[in-house]
Amino acid sequence: METIFTKIVNRQIPAHIVYEDDLVIAFLDITQATKGHTLVVSKAPYKDIFEIPRDLFKHLFGVVHKLSGAINKSFNPLGINLLNNNGIEAGQTVFHYHVHIIPRYDLNEIDIKLKNNSSNLNVEDYKKRAEMIITALL
Ligand code: 5GP
Q: CB neighbours (10 Å) of residue 61?
């Protein structure tokens, strides 16, 4: 399915492109949540992590690694968050696989703090959860 990112790939709408190869394109996120906020996008419109083929995923993460280094060199941030939302409930708004590279300059400029639920859990809960994942890997 065509998405807004397909339109960027096809040069139908403008974007500040910072990297491109046969499989992947990267451009500045329009919001610039922080200075240098960049999206790394598969050219083919796979919806999410469950659709994107593993080889392409590996290649895309190689590009994420390369661009993180370039962003680090360019802007000298104090840290970098990588973010990939899959599904509406996870905050995905564009259903075309992408990874956000978000350089950080200040702890409080954006809020992606995770809640600690450990006080509601016992060791059996952890064991059961780990076993479910291990079984699904088989
Ligand atoms: P998601 O919410 O799906 O993880 O991220 C989608 C991102 O795409 C958002 O951060 C949003 O700002 C960005 N975005 C949406 N439309 C455009 C656009 O037309 N151009 C650019 N450069 N970014 C876009």
A: 15
